[in-house]
Amino acid sequence: MGQIMQLFVSGLSTGVVYGLIAMGMVLIFRAVGVMNFAQGEFLMFGGYLCYTFNQLLGWNIMISLILASVGMGVVGVLFMRAAYWPLRKAQARAIIVSAMGASMVFKEGSRLIWGSIPVKVDRVLEAPVKLAGGGIIQGQYLAIMIVAAILMLFVYLLLEKTFVGHVMQATAQDQYMASMVGVPVIFSIAMTFALSAMITGIGGGLLAPLFFLNNTMGSTAGAKAFAAIVIGGFGSVQGAVLGGLIVGLVEVFGGAYISTTYQLVLIYIVLIIVLMVRPQGIFSSKIQEKA
Amino acid sequence: MKNKKKSSIIVLLTALAVFALAPLGMGNYMLRVLNVALITYLCVLSVYVLLGMCGQNSFAQAGLWGVGAYMAANLVLRAGFPPVIALLAATAGTALFAFVLGFAFFRLRQYYFTFASVGLMTILNGLFMNWEPVTGGALGMQNIPKFSVFGIMLESEKANFYFILIICVLTFVVMRILFYSSIGRSFMAIRDNEIAANCMGVNSLLTKSIAFGISGALCGIAGALYAFLSGYLSYQTFTYQQSTMYLIMIMLGGTISPVGAIIGTMIISLLQEFVRPLANYMQLIYGAGIMILMVVQPEGILGGGKALYETLHKRKRTGPDAA
Amino acid sequence: MKHYINEKEPVLTLHNVVKRFGGVTAADHVSFELYGGEVFGLIGPNGSGKTTLINLITGIYSADEGNIMLGGKKVTKLSTHTRSKLGIIRSFQHPRLLGRCDIETNILVGVDLAVRRRLPQARDYQERMNILLETAGLSGVNLKDSTERLSYGQQKMLEIVRAMLSYPKVLLLDEPAAGLNRSEMNYIRALISMATNEGIAVLLIEHAMDLVMEVCNRITVLNFGKQITTGLPSEVQENTAVIEAYLGGGGQLAANQ
After folding, report:
1. Interface residue of A32, A79, A106, A108 to substitute, partner B, most B CBs within 10 Å
2. A92, B259, C88, C244 — which has fewest CB within 10 A?
3. Which CATH class is domain B2-274?
4. Per-domain residue ranges of chain C
5. Nearest CA of chain B to the CA of C231: how many Å?
């Protein structure tokens, strides 16, 4: 039982980070109608920023996480300005290719700045934590789940309860109308990208103590987040989070009981099954296209 | 119809002449570079079919290339098949593989397929690296013999060059035939207006899968050729990064025609050789370069050329001596 | 060239078709029959659900309730491309052409469908194409040009040419005259006439009332997804409920004519 509990906890905590990445992707998708191809690089870059503050400058991990997220906010805005905004009227294809270019820039830039040797970051909670039932889980897993829960609550409150959030949602639904009522569209979209980059970047800092940081982790992370979105249900934030949890659990249990080398294969088999059986995902309703 | 066919033929003959004469001045090293470039061209052509004709963006092409390569190598080394059979089987096998996968992946809307293809690429690379009994795992496969047909082995770089060139010419011709066929039109209908295509009898799932299958066939040929040419295979060749290079090549040349594939492939393949000192920064440059290209001229060199031609033409017509 | 359609049996039947989007009922128990060789008008104020019906008939939307039948065959659950292979063809409110292909390729898409439908006359398309292009006023056009060279009206006409090349059984026209000037409308009239002569059942969504009254054999009127009335053009014109739907109550429009 103890082992299953351990696996469950570690699956949930990696899953919740995938949920954060997926949430970031969904936020951008709802705002501009295109899936962000470079979302995985946000995770990687956020992790490296955290590494810079925490390991290279020696600061406290919590402070490093906060600074890294602020940094990622800036990065998100720059990314939007360079990769998305000039192409906002172009076809989705062009935007994807541009994001691909941006992800190359991120990857190579990270390699040139921080080198290609994988690095680590401090844990938020060092010691193992005792659970009510008598089990023990790694402190970091608990920390991840707490931080992720706080972030998701923050995003929910921001979008649903604040004026800024309402503006962001309005722009996401209809850019033209929003501009007609005086919303500075570029501002609102920039905020959405910043928020997306921030929550994803913090995920990088949280995962870093568990898995090493390296400059190629972005594409796998992106692929998993994408699987999460499709499995959970397209376009919905809840779907993204729940899909992330499913992916995390499949990965961990699959890795333990089947094989670690084929974890991604397993995730994609689940993806394909979901696609065959219920293409709109678990938590979504069928999408109709207008003619 | 006549004009287009005429200009296609002119392009083909010119390129042929240039290419046929090329080996005269080159050493073995440059010939190898050229051979690999031609093989790369076949993979870029697969992107042309899938993206340029059908509008579907895939990052799994280098993975399909690997499938073809490992298949051919296995058929020759482990199953003892003659290289010709291995080449044909690898082509068909990769095509079938892609076609069947298409039925799962194309249930996703257009650009979601792109993301799934990243997953597929990662999985394939993982398989190449780990599936020891078939791919040799991290050590890869060695001692793959050179291609031979009717008892004649293609030992020299030059011989291989002419062989690969012939295949490239044949595939170029097949592309032209595809363009003027009804399945080719179905691809383009999906690319330009999928809803209208559906309303005119085009089955999206089946048609896109066929496109993926054809792209798989092209990568399959390329893979087999590569296995015979280089003699050894490593998972480090068949990477996501390689797939992005194919995309950059076709975007640079222009997605609108297989000629774009030739232009893009040649420029970048030869560029790699001449910018050795900058090798460490090339990926960064490509990344930034493609971002700029998308904003300035998403149709690539061919598109830019076409636009230039049309502006000049317009100036002629509205000039002082216009009718 | 006549189609072998039995004019006593309806070609297309809608029976109690319902479509809801969240809280809005876009199609509320709509029923009608279309016969070969007739023009059936579908009119109503903007937002009344006309395009929704075409989307339902072609399969772009799937009906929540009700049935759609082509001849005697239920097509309600079939995919869009399957329905088009059975002969349900449409035009769009804003022309959906292949922007990166030349005009000839656009036309050939229609021929491809006829070939796919295994129609024996499909491969000899040249003559039919020329007749259609002339009827549509497009005979002077260079087939190698991009579709962007065509005017808006010409693009709409090209869509109908493409549709006609596939020998439809049912032709659904979504506001073909919108954006066209008076002389271009003559081409629409000619194309519709050609279709009915071939025994095709034509469904016409239109706002240009003179065109509707002139070419339609019968008309049904929609408002908020519900059918208000169905009948001859003269009957519909005098119907007070219809006038109210368009003018919002108390109109004396028809009476003053």
Report:
1. A108
2. C244
3. mainly alpha
4. 12-94+167-256
5. 29
Residues B208 and B107 sit within 8 Å (Cβ to Cβ) = no
CB-based contact B189 C162, cutoff 8 Å? no
Query: CA B101, CA B119: separation in Å to the nearest integer?
Result: 12
Place of tokens 């690898």: B90
Q: Do B182 and C166 touch (CB under 8 A)?
A: no
Angle CA A3–A5–A7, to nearest 5: 70
B123 in reach of chain A (CB within 8 A): yes
In a domain, A77, yes or no: yes
Could you give the ipTM of this predicted complex? Answer: 0.89
Contact predicate C193/C205, CB 8 Å: no
Within 8 A by CB and 6+ apart from C58, the residues are: A291, B199, C80, C83, C84, C88, C90, C172
C71-96: b (≥16 Cβ within 10 Å) or e: beeebbebbbbebbbbbbbbbbbebb
Cα B121 from Cα B125, distance rounded (Å):
6
Task: List beta partners, residue C223.
Answer: C226
User: How far is B135 from chain C, CA to nearest CA, in Å?
Assistant: 42
The answer to whether A31 and A168 have CB atoms below 8 angstroms apart is: yes
Contacts of B280 in chain A (CB under 8 A): 112
Residue of B nearest to C86 (CA): B201
Q: What angle do CA B232, B237, B240 make, to 5 degrees?
A: 155
Subunit contact B182:C115, Cβ cutoff 8 A: yes
| Domain limits, chain B | 2-274, 278-323
Per-residue pLDDT of B250-298, as tens digits, reads 999 999 999 999 999 999 998 888 888 888 889 999 999 999 999 999 8
In sequence order, what are the residues at sequence separation of 6 or more whose Cβ sits closer than 8 angstroms to the Cβ of residue B83? B72, B76, B145, B147, B148, B149, B228
Place of tokens 């600061």: A59
The chains in contact with chain C, meaning 3 or more Cβ pairs closer than 8 Å, are: A, B
In a domain, A153, yes or no: yes
Query: CB–CB of B291 and A271 under 8 A?
Result: no
Domain C12-94+167-256 matching CATH 3.40.50.300: the answer reads: yes
> Which ranges of C45-124 does DSSP label H, i.e. alpha helix?
50-58, 80-86, 103-116
Residue A259, in any domain of the structure: no
Q: Which phi and psi angles does C31 have, rounded to 5°?
A: -140, 135
Tell me: the pLDDT tens digits for B68-90? Answer: 999 999 999 999 899 999 999 99
Whose structure tokens read 């439809």?
A: C168
* Mutate: best of B291, B292, B299, partner A, most A CBs <10 A: B291
What 8-state DSSP symbol labels residue C61? S
The tally of domains found in chain A comes to 1
**Which chains share 3+ C-beta pairs under 8 angstroms with A?**
B, C
Domain contains A10: no
Q: Judging by DSSP bridges, how do beta strands C88-90 and C170-174 pair with one another?
A: parallel
B108 at interface of A, judged by CB pairs closer than 8 A: yes
Chain B residues in contact with A219 by the CB 8 A cut-off are 118, 122, 240
C80 in contact with B at a CB cutoff of 8 Å?
A: yes
Q: How far is CA A245 from CA A153, A156, A225, C195, in A?
A: 16, 18, 10, 57
> Tens digit of pLDDT for each residue in C191-244?
999 999 999 999 999 988 889 999 999 999 998 999 988 989 888 888 877 877
Give the angle subtended at the CA of C190 by the CAs of C188 and C196, to the nearest 5°.
105
The CA distance from C153 to the nearest CA of chain B, in Å, is 18
